[in-house]
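Saturday, quiet lab. Running sequence design on the C-alpha cells for the scaffold JK sent over.
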C-alpha cells in the first residue's frame, strides 16, 4: 500500500509539473463593458444576452452552427408538419414540454411556466425592447407593441386610460382586463403537457425568433417570478407591470433559469459577472465549474492577461489581432462569417435637455434639436468618412463596406447598389446647402459618444471628427467615451445626436435589419425621433405614393423571394439617397483564446460564447 501511495503521489506531481493549464475548472473571459440588465424581456444587447444565454433555456435551439436547422431544448420536439406539431397551415406551433427539468431554485419546469413567460413578455413590453418581433410574429405585420393593440381593441389610447399619477381610470379597468382575456390569453394555451402558440398568420421565422440565444425566448419560473414582484399571472392589474424602467424590474440583477450555469454575482463596480455550474442540470453538467465574464476596457490589460494565462478568452479588436496571433499558446481565428453591421445613425429630434448638443442653437456653440432633419447635413456626414481606409487601417482588413445596413449573404443584398464614399468636395457641397448656408457660416458643436473600450467605434468617431474639421474649422465634434449602460441610456432617452452601434441579427432574415434601422417602429429607427417618424410615414414618389414604413412591411410579408429581393433593393436605394443612416462596415468575426480551451462551437447568431461545451486541457 505504501508503494502504491508513493507511486500515485509521484504521478500527481508529474501531472502538476507538466500541466500548463491555469485554473482548469474556471474560465475567464476578458471582454469590454457589462450587461445592461438581466431581465430576459428587457435585455437587448449582447453583453446582457450572453449571460442569459448560458443561464436560461428556450424551447428550441439551433443545430450547432446552422442558422436554419433546430434541435429541441425545453420542448421535446421541434414543431414541423411531418411530426404533427405544426398545425393550421403554419399558424399553430405545439411544444411538448420536457419533464424532469428543474429551475435553479429547485422548482419543476411546467407548461404553465411557458405560457406565463410568453404572456408576461407581451404585457411587460418595455419600450425600445426586443418584444416587437414577438408581437409581429404572433399578431401579424404592423403590430409591434401592446399599447397599439390596446388602442385598436378599445378605441382609446393606452396612456389616456390613466390619470396624471399613473393610476387606472375606473371606467377602463374592465376594458384592460377583457383585453387580456380576449387578445393575449388565447394566443398561448396549455393542454396537458403541451403548449399551443397561435399565430395570426404563418410566420416562417418564428422558430428563429424564439430559439436559444434570444433572451426574449428564455423561459421563466412562474411561481418564483410572482414571488419576487413580477406579474402575478392575473388579468386584474397586469398594467401595473407594463413598461418598467430596467432598474425597477426584480429581474434586473437576479436570475432563475434552467440552464447549465447559475448566476453567482454581478459586481457592477468591477464590471464582472460570475457564473457557477448547475450541478442539477437536466443534461450532463458542464465541464467548467465557474465562468467569469469581466469587462476590462483597456486592451493592454486584456492582452497581458491572455499572455499570462489569467484570461482564457479576450475581446480583440481587429487592429490588434496581429499582436496575439504569433503567440504559440494562443489560438486565433480570423475571417469568421458574421450577421452583424456597424453603422452611424442620426437622431432627427434630439431632446432639448441633452448635454451633447452644446447650446442647442445655431450659434456656432451647438446644434438645434432637429439638426439632422436636413437631408444635406446627413449627406455631408455620409461623405466625410473614409470607409476604405478605416477598414484597412483600423480593422486590419477584417471588414467590408456594404451599400446599406443589410449584410452580405442575406436575401435582398446587392453589392452593385450605390455605396457612400469618402469625398470631401461632395461633403462640402452638401454642407454649404444645409440650412440655406447658415450651417456653413456659423458652424456647429456637438458630442459623439462611444462605449469605452470599443477602439473601432472610438476611432471611427475620431476619423469623422477630424474630417469634419478639415472641411470647415467651425465644425467641432467632441469624441467622448462612456460606459456601455450609460451609452444605452443616452440613446434610449433621445439624448445622443448621433450614435455608432452594431446590430447582431435577432434572426437571419433581411427584415431584421431593414425594419430595425429604417422603419420608424424599428428598434433603432424608433430612436431617430418624431421628425423621422413623420418622414417614414409620408407617401413617397419613389415608392408610387407608398411610405417607407409601408414598403418595409410589404417586403417582409411577400411570399416570393424574388419579389422580396426587388423590394429590398428599391428600399435600399431610397434610404441611401436620403442618408437615413451611415453603414460603416460589416465586420468579419474573430476568436482569440488560449490553446488549452477545447470544445468551442460558434454560431454567428448567438450573442456570445456558449460555455456549456467548453473545457480546458493542454492535450
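Result came back. Writing it out in full:
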Amino acid at each position: 500500500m505504501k508503494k502504491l501511495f508513493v507511486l500515485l503521489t509521484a504521478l500527481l506531481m508529474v501531472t502538476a509539473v507538466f500541466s500548463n493549464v491555469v485554473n482548469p475548472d474556471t474560465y475567464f473571459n476578458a471582454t469590454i463593458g457589462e450587461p445592461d440588465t438581466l431581465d430576459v424581456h428587457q435585455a437587448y444587447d449582447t453583453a446582457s444576452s450572453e449571460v442569459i444565454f448560458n443561464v436560461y433555456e428556450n424551447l428550441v435551439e439551433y443545430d450547432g452552427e446552422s442558422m436554419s436547422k433546430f434541435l429541441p431544448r425545453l420542448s421535446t420536439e421541434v414543431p414541423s408538419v411531418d411530426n404533427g406539431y405544426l398545425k393550421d397551415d403554419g399558424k399553430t406551433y405545439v411544444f411538448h414540454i420536457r419533464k424532469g427539468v428543474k429551475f435553479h431554485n429547485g422548482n419543476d419546469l411546467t407548461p404553465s411556466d411557458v405560457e406565463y413567460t410568453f404572456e408576461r413578455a407581451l404585457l411587460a413590453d418595455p419600450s425600445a425592447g426586443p418584444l416587437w418581433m414577438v408581437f409581429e410574429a404572433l399578431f401579424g405585420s404592423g403590430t409591434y407593441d401592446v399599447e397599439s393593440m390596446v388602442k385598436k381593441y378599445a378605441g382609446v389610447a393606452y396612456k389616456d386610460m390613466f390619470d396624471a399619477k399613473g393610476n387606472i381610470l375606473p371606467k377602463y379597468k374592465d376594458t384592460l382586463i377583457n383585453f387580456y382575456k380576449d387578445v393575449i390569453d388565447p394566443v398561448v394555451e396549455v393542454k396537458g403537457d403541451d403548449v399551443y402558440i397561435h399565430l395570426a398568420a404563418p410566420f416562417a421565422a418564428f422558430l428563429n425568433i424564439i430559439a436559444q440565444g434570444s433572451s426574449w425566448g428564455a423561459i421563466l419560473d412562474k411561481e418564483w417570478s410572482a414571488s419576487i414582484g413580477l406579474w402575478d399571472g392575473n388579468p386584474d392589474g397586469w398594467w401595473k407591470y407594463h413598461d418598467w424602467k430596467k432598474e425597477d424590474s426584480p429581474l434586473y440583477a437576479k436570475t432563475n433559469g434552467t440552464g447549465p450555469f447559475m448566476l453567482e454575482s454581478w459586481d457592477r463596480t468591477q464590471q464582472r459577472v460570475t457564473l457557477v455550474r448547475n450541478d442539477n442540470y437536466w443534461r450532463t453538467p458542464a465541464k467548467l465549474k465557474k465562468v467569469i465574464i469581466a469587462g476590462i476596457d483597456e486592451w493592454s490589460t486584456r492582452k497581458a492577461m491572455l499572455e499570462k494565462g489569467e484570461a482564457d478568452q479576450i475581446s480583440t479588436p481587429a487592429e490588434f489581432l496581429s499582436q496575439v496571433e504569433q503567440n504559440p499558446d494562443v489560438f486565433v481565428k480570423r475571417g469568421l462569417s458574421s450577421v452583424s453591421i456597424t453603422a452611424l445613425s442620426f437622431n432627427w429630434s434630439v431632446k432639448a435637455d441633452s448635454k451633447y448638443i452644446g447650446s442647442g442653437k445655431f450659434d456656432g456653440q451647438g446644434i438645434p434639436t432637429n439638426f439632422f432633419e436636413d437631408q444635406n447635413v446627413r449627406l455631408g456626414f455620409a461623405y466625410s468618412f473614409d470607409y476604405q481606409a478605416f477598414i484597412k487601417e483600423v480593422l486590419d482588413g477584417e471588414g467590408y463596406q456594404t451599400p446599406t445596413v443589410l449584410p452580405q449573404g442575406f436575401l435582398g443584398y446587392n453589392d452593385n447598389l450605390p455605396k457612400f464614399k469618402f469625398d470631401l468636395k461632395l461633403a462640402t457641397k452638401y454642407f454649404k446647402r444645409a440650412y440655406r448656408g447658415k450651417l456653413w457660416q456659423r458652424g456647429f458643436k456637438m458630442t459623439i459618444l462611444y462605449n469605452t473600450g470599443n477602439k473601432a467605434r472610438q476611432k471611427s468617431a475620431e476619423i469623422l471628427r477630424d474630417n469634419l474639421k478639415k472641411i470647415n474649422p467651425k465644425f467641432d465634434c467632441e469624441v467622448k467615451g462612456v460606459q456601455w449602460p450609460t451609452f444605452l441610456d443616452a440613446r434610449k432617452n433621445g439624448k445622443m445626436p448621433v450614435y455608432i452601434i452594431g446590430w447582431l441579427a435577432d434572426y437571419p432574415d433581411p427584415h431584421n435589419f431593414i425594419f430595425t434601422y429604417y422603419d420608424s417602429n424599428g428598434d433603432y429607427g424608433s430612436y431617430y425621433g418624431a421628425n423621422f417618424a413623420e418622414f417614414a410615414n409620408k407617401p413617397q414618389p419613389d415608392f408610387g405614393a407608398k411610405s417607407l414604413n409601408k414598403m418595409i412591411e410589404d417586403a417582409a410579408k411577400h411570399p416570393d423571394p424574388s419579389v422580396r429581393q426587388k423590394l429590398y433593393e428599391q428600399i435600399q436605394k431610397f434610404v441611401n439617397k436620403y442618408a437615413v443612416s451611415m453603414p460603416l462596415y460589416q465586420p468579419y468575426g474573430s476568436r482569440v483564446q488560449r490553446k488549452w480551451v477545447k470544445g468551442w462551437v460558434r454560431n454567428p447568431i448567438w450573442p456570445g460564447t456558449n460555455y456549456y461545451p467548453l473545457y480546458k486541457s493542454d492535450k
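Notes for JK: The CA atoms of residues 266 and 372 lie 38 Å apart. The longest strand covers residues 444-451. Ask whether to fix the surface positions before the next round.
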